[in-house]
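To assess whether ligand presence alters the predicted conformation, the chain was also submitted together with flavin-adenine dinucleotide. Input:
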Amino acid sequence: MYNTADVIIVGSGVIGCAAAYYLAKKGVSVIVLDKDDSIGNGGSSRNGGGVRQSGRDPRELPLAMYGVEHMWPTLSEELGIDVEYHKKGNLRLGKTEKHKEILQGLTDRAVACGLDVRMIDGNEVREINPYLSEEVTCASWCATDGHANPLLTTLGYYKNARALGVRFITGEEVVELQKIKGKLKRVVTKKNVYEGEKVIVAAGYESRSIIQSVGIDVPMRAELIEALVTEAEPKMFEQMLGTADADFYGHQTDHGSFVFGGASGLESTAKDNGKMITASITAPCICRGIMKYIPKLADAKIVRTWAGYEDICIDGIPVISEVEEVPGLILACAFTGHGFGISPVVGKLLSQMATGEETMLDIKEFRYDRFHANI
Ligand SMILES: Cc1cc2nc3c(=O)[nH]c(=O)nc-3n(C[C@H](O)[C@H](O)[C@H](O)COP(=O)(O)OP(=O)(O)OC[C@H]3O[C@@H](n4cnc5c(N)ncnc54)[C@H](O)[C@@H]3O)c2cc1C
């Protein structure tokens, strides 16, 4: 039957595309299904491109560190496409004593996990980035953090997976999973039925309703956030920036434009009907933050704004897990707004899980059954 493969992947975001690529490299047959008409039209083509280790949950840090050490530096070469990866550091900025406390807490936790990150004062901040305002009094500095281009990374995995024989089928909305003789076998879309020995569900927040069809749940919610891109500016700096207050984050791209992201908290006021529409208040809110930290950008022109959903897990880290009750099912969801930076690692781990190999990193922290009621 044409609709069969060793592995069916639901979702053609960067996670699904990366998993497909690493599986195809092992000679595994793969079908990737996406409900959209385009590849990677979820968070993967809308994100800010941060490849961060600092500010991560300690449980997630080993994945982020592995990626920065072993995968991102050679990814462009591996995929034959420049993913615009730059390992030029991350400054998380603060202006007040409260900010300093927040940054110190994040720094202490990361240092305890072996990450080279430290607190610096305002003068050192401006030695690293002279464009930052005098109001900045402190920052956490992680020299090995960086950023990459999410569209090119997703495209790179997609093109290479296709070249290795992976079949990508768009316009296929998965509505149900079905077990046969106690094992997951069928993936049912609105139009067709597909069969695989393993099924990886990497469909962002919508993974939740898909896996509920076989009685499994992941406690996550969908949250809309926004980003914007400016006209190209002369080259200013290469670091990734964020703030203790989380009022914005961003970087300057190779092309010269700045990509900044953030939230006003009022995104849900844009009644978008699932169409990811921006709220009129959010871009001005992000810009107010940027102008205070980087005064030179006060006159930068915004070319485009957009919104995208994050799949926020109740405990802040993803679910990357096989499911005992449903043999054959593998979950890769709930990335909580930071899945891009770890996507190469997660893709490789998923390929190892689907082929029954021992995973290169311990993934027990990401199990689907770690959630317990707090009674
Ligand atoms: C504005 C924004 C900024 C962000 N910034 C960063 C950042 O700087 N750094 C970072 O690491 N992360 C960031 N993230 C998070 C990051 O984008 C995601 O964690 C990552 O892209 C997750 O990839 P994914 O493949 O799991 O999901 P997605 O890219 O969302 O892909 C899921 C796919 O599943 C498909 N799908 C959904 N339902 C179905 C169905 N029923 N049947 C078939 N297909 C279905 C969708 O169409 C979609 O293509 C940001 C996210 C947003 C929205």
